[in-house]
Specification:
The chain has about 575 residues and is α+β, with helices and mostly antiparallel strands. The protein has 19 helices and 23 strands. The chain is elongated and about 90 Å long.
Amino acid sequence: MPCATSPNGEKMINILRPEEARKIAAGEIIDRPASLVRELLDNAIDAGGRNIELLIEEGGSRRIEVLDDGCGMNKADLELCYYAHATSKITSLDDLNRAETLGFRGEALAAAAAVSKLDILSSIDGREAWRLEVGPQGHPARLEQTRRVKGTSVRCLGLFDTIPVRKRFLKRPTSEAALCYAAFVDKALCFSEIAFRFTQNGTLKTVLPPAFSFRDRFARLITGKDSERFLHEIKTSGEGFSISIIIGGSEISRTDKRQQFLFANGRRIQDYSLQQALEYGVQGAFPNGTHPVGAIFIKIAPHLADFNIHPAKREARFVHAGAIHHAITTALHDFGRHLRLSTTETPMPHQEREFDSFAQRHWEQREKIKTSESITNHLAMAALLENRPQFAELPEPETKSMDIQKEKIQFVGRYLPFIIIEKGGRLFFIDQHAAHERILYEKFLSEPIAKQELLVNITFNTDSEEDDAFLEAKRRELDRLGVVISGEKGVWQIDALPVNWRKGDAETVRDLLDLRIAGENIAERWLATLACHTAVKDGDYLDQSACIALAEAAFDLPDPHCPHGRPIWVEKEGKDALLKAVKRE
């Protein structure tokens, strides 16, 4: 800590002038135009506006204006609204446990008045209206009677003109405008029942009429109306919260996660664990590193969440975060199982469904299956395929798959990593790794995992109480999955692992701890990883008999995709089509 006095004994600490302190404090709330857009839209929504319009100029630095048809303010309210901590939403600290509005601290207009010229017009009935002008120094320049329909208009001019150091670090107007639009989109997604309009530099850019559902608004704003048939809306709930999930099928997948959104009580928040729940819930449905588009809308009782931990409310803490994560992953997992999201070849009609826990029922079903000795060594391919796994009943495969099973196969050759098979006049290229991976995965689902004790135990330390709680709670389930652990409170060790587990110590520990954010899908995720690392690899050579046995088992599978969602085979033109191609009809 620096000394409070200079070397010569002079005083070093000063009290900032009120106007300077206000400007610095305002920077925590309004760090750029998009922050002010978000705050003003929150106020318009809290006021009950059913039609809200946003206008910006020069990326928001020159002008930001939000108009609504909400409840409005009278003269007395206008005289107080721009003071720090002036709010109509809470009166004491206890009210934070009951506040259901987007804003509650009374800082938005005060911050806007500190860093821009503020012009507010408002009327509560459309007959009497008042106008307030406030300069950056915080003093009202004028309060006068005017005309306006019911509602409020808030106009902010010259943002950061009095704080050059802040304005200097703004991005170009086009970039700032894009951020303002992103804030507009966040609010429009959450409040689909409200009509929104966005105007930039005098040009009307976006018009959003009221939508019937989150799905409709999401399709209009994010994916486009042409992709609406690939979007699905799922609803689930728990104690004190309800959740609506929008999830897109693999037809509109993306290579990044920029079109994934997380909202809680109307605010877009950042929470890595809950954002990952969207990915884990549909694991296996999006192959080759692609990601789903989607959004999670959480409605939670105010006393179960704290939005007051970040000046701009970008973060939140939940009393029962694990229950919310579980509800999301379970609902998505169950949805994918029932509608076969990863294997449907034609667009599925939109369905809105509520699911109860699938994971518990699925595990109970596994416990009833007879145990037998597990064979997992990929070098003993023939032995594995002679003792085919018994699959649980699943929906009937497509007619094409049934035809494939009936026809006798003929080995054509190899083109690593593919096995080339002719069957019924059709030619198939089978991915040997993906096929064996799925065979093993189905076998692991139906039989206990053979495990082997380690000669040298793997010792590791945990970084959080959550990791300790997870390992303690899942000991028995991990044991059934072939992983035996011991230890407690920060120091743990792995005593046994599945037969033929080949990963190094660090990777093994990382895979184990990553299961904590897999929700109730621990078994599926672990078994998919185990199958992948036990199956034959792309470069492994199989003799002709092993290739035929692998192909026959692959055609018998109820789902022609590996556990990660990649197709097991691809069909090419058969002999007749090839002869026709070379003019030998």
